[in-house]
Amino acid sequence: MNQEEYKIIIADDHKLISDSIELIIRENNLGSVMGKVANGNELFILLEQTSVHLIIMDIRMPQLDGLKASEILKSKKNHSKILVISQYDNIEFVKQFQAMGIDGYLPKSFDINDFITAIKKIKAGEKFFPLLQNDNSTTHSSKPFSSFDNDRYKLSEREIEIIVCISQGLTSRQIAQKLFLSEFTITTHRRNIFRKLDIKNAAGLIFFAKENHLI
């Protein structure tokens, strides 16, 4: 199976997150996103129209959450693989999904490399449960973003403000106008932010902001 044939659906009610996931998939040639939905009901409507190899699904969604949607998918013997993404890192909760037959469970404290690894392993027919591994060094990021520690990152108040603006989808010009700064100043701050956080692109920055409750 080549990468172009690997079809994916993203189920997450936060548009910034689903857009970022799609960007990572596209930039790393991990597959083709066939659609993005905001809840389990929309997921099943889309699955009536197309079959996919992988469903990337958040737990907390309105109307029909990821847990219930996963249970229904497995009861219907749907052949799509399921990668669950969740803010919960409780081991017993993860084991519940593993017992259900889910193919992977990734806490939202992951970094982009963990996410890429998860998809590659699931595509290869493997399971991916980093929280259940005894050796976290093989599957867990060495730089979890589960809580915001500004003593660690040394971000200024202005830089945090710019992170929020970038995560809201504003361009450098729009941020400059909003904060009454020059576009050159915003570009300089942006470069410093990426360096301090060791982040390569806007998708990574959005994940950081989301997981540290900045947005």
From TrEMBL:
Alphabetical UniProt keywords: DNA-binding, Phosphoprotein, Transcription, Transcription regulation
Modified residues (4-aspartylphosphate): D58
InterPro entries, per the entry: CheY-like_superfamily, NreC/VraR/RcsB-like_REC, Sig_transdc_resp-reg_C-effctor, Sig_transdc_resp-reg_receiver, Tscrpt_reg_LuxR_C, WalR-like
One Gene Ontology MF term: DNA binding
Top-rank taxon: Bacteria
Database matches in Pfam families: GerE, Response_reg
Keyword flag Acyltransferase: no
GO biological process, one term: phosphorelay signal transduction system
Domain HTH luxR-type: 146-213
Domain Response regulatory: 7-123
Record-given protein name: DNA-binding response regulator
Species of provenance: Solitalea longa
